[in-house]
Amino acid sequence: MANENPSLSERKKLILKAIVEAHIDGGEPVGSKYILQNTLMSCSSATIRNEMAELEQMGYLVQPHTSAGRVPSEAGYRFYVDSLVEQYAKTTHEVVQINHLLKAKMSEIDQILETASRLASSMTNYTGIAIKPKASSVTMSKFELVSIDKKQFAMVMITSSGAVKTKKITTDQPIPDGALLKLSELMNLLLCGLSADMINLPIIMEMENEMGDAAFLVSPAVKCVWEVMSDIDGGELRYSGLNHLLKYPEYSDTQQLGQLLGTLEDQDEILDLVSETEGDDISVVIGSESPVKVMNNSAFVFKPIKKNGRTVGVIGVLGPRRMNYRQVLKTIEEIGGSIAVMFDEEKQLKEGNNRKGDGDGGK
Amino acid sequence: MANENPSLSERKKLILKAIVEAHIDGGEPVGSKYILQNTLMSCSSATIRNEMAELEQMGYLVQPHTSAGRVPSEAGYRFYVDSLVEQYAKTTHEVVQINHLLKAKMSEIDQILETASRLASSMTNYTGIAIKPKASSVTMSKFELVSIDKKQFAMVMITSSGAVKTKKITTDQPIPDGALLKLSELMNLLLCGLSADMINLPIIMEMENEMGDAAFLVSPAVKCVWEVMSDIDGGELRYSGLNHLLKYPEYSDTQQLGQLLGTLEDQDEILDLVSETEGDDISVVIGSESPVKVMNNSAFVFKPIKKNGRTVGVIGVLGPRRMNYRQVLKTIEEIGGSIAVMFDEEKQLKEGNNRKGDGDGGK
DNA sequence: ATTAGCACTTGACCTCAAAGAGTGCTAAAA
DNA sequence: TTTTAGCACTCTTTGAGGTCAAGTGCTAAT
Predict the structure, then answer these.
(1) pLDDT exceeds 80 at position A37
(2) In the structure, how far is the CA atom of residue A64 from the C1' atom of nucleotide D13, in angstroms?
(3) For a tag site, which of B16, B287, B299, B345 has the least CB within 10 Å?
């Protein structure tokens, strides 16, 4: 297939590499003069031109038009990539961060909001937005430990708001018989009702003390609890269906679109905008009614999602100012309503339970 | 604030509404003649022009330039939206679907892939892609039921691949004492090792028979199991960081960008492209090397994610053909490696366990 | 084999005029 | 007093023509 690769002279390789990298960098055709200046070549531009002409004949370069510089062809990129492919090496530094992020799971609310955003986008053909404001003061109301095998168990946590969280925990040593039962009793006794910052060293030490020879289980378990609780906190903004915006000529100016997206990335501005608008009902922000300047040509329809009276998120739709408000309003109302119903069902059941048998895991 | 709203004559309202809707539809300034033709107005264009002039003076309309039609101003949209806001009503038909989608949770693999895609995008400044191919033959290896309150319990399921799934189940009637224990025994006995399509009516009937007066628990529980198992199946494609593409002049042509995104939405083409390329290693598809025509100016770097020897997903980066291959290759390799390590840890632990004590939840 | 110099090609950019769309205004009609 | 018809006016859009700069290919000299 690519049989002539080895037949490239060293200088040709150097020139090809220089062209590819220059083009990657700048995006424009690169001329002989540019190469001369940006690489340490001991020859003139004419020589480079000759080599370039040959490289073009071989199929590695392409001229967009007669008097433009050269651009790498597919084969050119292919050669570059193939000769590069052995070179990359892991930078262990970044790997740690990757690992951390990968292991962080999505919370339940996150998932609902994400799905809602996706839904809103696909139903309206605009961009769906989901915002999770900074929540706080989550506590656990019940723990349950489920053995998976000798060295693994799952921790099931039920939060004060009734959400069920699962974490899988892996230990170095085999788990002694009965240790899980003991640990779960202990956690239900000591950790229920505590917010993340109330779990401190004395509590952990007491737990380790009580656990005896299975004390090694305490640290990872508590760490898990802590992670889950802090996972629930933290404001975030998700959007989906950006591609829909491209259909509208308002955003054919890539500049503006880029700015708008930048604003979305920033998050803070949108979060401000949303938190400014109080009330449970659906809101419509049109153009410069918002403090965000970039949104001059856009409109933003959104609705807070309440759970037990507290705002747990916002879902919405972002589109051109001339968006189909009728449809969007309907859709957001529907999705918001659906989520509210979901939460309401949970709430009613919990209240019913509180009235009948409170304090089953009491502290 | 908007005090003069009621002072609009009926005809003005009608015209304003027509202009807003025409503009929503077409995106261009709308002239008097157009309105005359597209609404059933019994007057001439001159009359409409007069009204439009007045509406403009009132601030509801705006002329981009002297000889263009009118475009609704912010106030115009505001008036339209406000007068519309009471009108939207729920179409209960769609609500059902919304509910269904909202309640579907993300699987663990999904979350990892999603995070990976996000990571890849933010680390490379191109578009991150995560693909979950059609998986199959998931079975459950253990069930555990955890009571939440009188009418709610959580079902913890451990799949054959070791993933932990949780579903919360809400019942109409209070759950009899001991019923959960019985049900969990029954499920562990009858459902372990079965794939989704092997759970059939006879099994369910036997379970209901065994459960006696708590038979009402069986149906929702089995349904849940089934949902979780089919949630794990099904190919899907996620991408994130589309906005990064806007930075590159290759995609400043909104047309092309739109087509490319359309291809991504289609999913099938990309799924084909990926499944065609076999092997564990990182792949680079440059431009028209791929069968997808739209990708002429683009390149796609991806790597399959294996778990226990089976491909469970693909992560990758999509960008302009002149992407920074060095960086992208490195990043994908890193993320892929991190995921592999995560899976490997799980695998090793499971194997260690299998050797020592297999069949703890045996059937 | 390399280099210097020059003619040549071609897209980018600017200007200008013609065309087209839609208005505002005025005067007549209802 | 309100509506309508007609017409001049304004402003964008489009395409043609012309200049400019970039970068090449080629030839002749080193």
Answers:
(1) yes
(2) 29
(3) B345
Of the partner residues A94, A146, A356, the one whose CB lies closest to the CB of residue B144 = A146
HSE-up (13 A, CA, CB side) for residue A194: 19
CA/C1' separation A95–D26 (Å): 54
Structure tokens at B110: 């999904």
For tokens 């027509």, what's the residue? B18
Pair of tokens at residue A100:
């951390």
Q: How far apart are CA B209 and CA B276, in angstroms?
A: 48
Contacts of B47 (CB under 8 A, 6+ apart): none
Tokens of residue B146, six digits: 């955890």
Q: Which amino acid, B194?
A: L
- Answer yes or no: pTM beyond 0.85: no
User: Burial of A98 by CB count in 10 Å (0-12 exposed, 13-18 middle, 19+ buried)?
Assistant: buried
CA angle A157–A159–A165, rounded 5-degree value? 40
Helices (H), chain B: 10-26, 32-38, 45-58, 74-84, 92-103, 108-124, 179-190, 201-211, 218-232, 242-245, 254-266, 268-276, 325-356
- B226-260: per-residue pLDDT in tens? 877 766 655 678 888 888 888 888 887 777 777 78
For B337, the closest of A90, A156, A323 (CB atoms) is A90
Mutating which of A87, A93, A338, A348 best tests the B interface, going by the most B Cβ atoms within 10 A?
A338
Q: Which residues pair with A74 in a beta bridge?
A: none
Which residue bears the tokens 């019923």? Answer: B179
